[in-house]
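Handoff note, outgoing to incoming analyst
You'll be picking up this chain. Sequence as last confirmed:
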Amino acid sequence: MLPDFDQCYQILARRDQSFDGRFFAAVSSTGIYCRTSCSARTPLARNVAFFASAAAALAAGYRPCLRCRPEMAPRQPEHPATCASIVRALRLIDRGYLVDHRETDLATLVGLSADALNEQCTAVTGVGVAMLGKAHRLQMAKRLIDSSDLPLSRVADLAGYPSARSVQREIGRLYSRTPTSLRQARRRKNDRGSGEITLTLPVRQPYNQSWVFDFLARRALRGVEEVSPTCYRRLLKRDAQGDHWLSVNWLGDGFSVRVPACAVTRLATTLAGLRRVLDLDADSQSIDRHLARSSMLSRWVEEQPGLRIPGAWDGFEIAVRAILGQQVSVVRATDLANRLIDRYSNDGLFPDAAVLSRVNVAELGMPGRRGQAIGLLAEQVARGEMDLDETADASVLQDSLCRIPGIGPWTASYVCMRVARQADAFPEQDWVVMKVLQNKAPGCRRIAEEWRPWRGYALMYLWYASTQLAATN
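Most recent structure output, in case you need it:
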């Protein structure tokens, strides 16, 4: 929901970067819309209108500012109070679902009628599904034009436009430039001359990058992931041409992302995956403000603001690793995952569900019941009976996981937190949680009630607290 006009205008006047992506300012005298942090001279209040999304500003006939590039601002932060079906729908749109699906397909997938979906999307973003899809197409086309050397016909195909000419018309109308001139300007700054592309992912502060990278480093899979204090790399493909790595480098206020040529054709999915792994769509200002009210968490929130929940690049992989990690250390669980890759993978990547459904994973050295749980999970995923994805219904996923023998509430909650990005997931049976809170699971659950709807982020602070308490004892 937009703040009132006076609040919005004050935010614009002070060029508050923390509100970039939360709403946009449009200026009637220029016909341009901007981020709240745009460095242009503050317009007169009578010439300004505010919009909940870039798509809403586009729908009102405004063009994106070439200075602050508002269409590339951080994604509007997600909030648990938003209808879960709408959150899932927005994630799907952001991944390019509407490029090759109809609006009615989207409505059916998230369990709403087309009218209800449009009504609720409008309440959150200011526009309906069709306009959100149009804004996404523009964003993808602009990214591909700026960052790649793909022919315009291919850009049109990947972004969801009917032809190269339609891309030219749209770019010309909104930017008063041709795609060729935009590319020439980009090459003067960074002429890579290769199939890979480099682009930037913005970060909404506070963002605790060291926590995220340390979390990923302690769980990195040998030969699949590489993590240093400022760089995260993920192997996407291995073929006759070599290894194709996705690389992410910390810039201090955002990430530089190098996308290999093999992933450019699915850029929307790749970027959505990265935002998921790095948890870039969280609203840490609101989360930390809420959690800091707790006497048990306030110290840790003050020490390390902006803790995020690193998400899943691949949902099946995380679910299997969660089972491997039952009642063992992170080091032991990671070792088991590496042995699983060594034993069952043909290309060095994590084996897919079809492969693991045909083997007895317990032979790696774990309780038979745990191995059976992985096999049953793999069978359901291979048959398309379980959706291990950020667009899954978290409550359905939790119930489905708990029905598999060998998977309990801790594992299901952990998977929902990292795979379905359920901000309020809280595995009260977690050994570290019980130790830090000095309570058994029922007591931990009662204590955590005041942390709703951000209990997953409270868990991160409890895990952080355990490391600090251990260091002082």
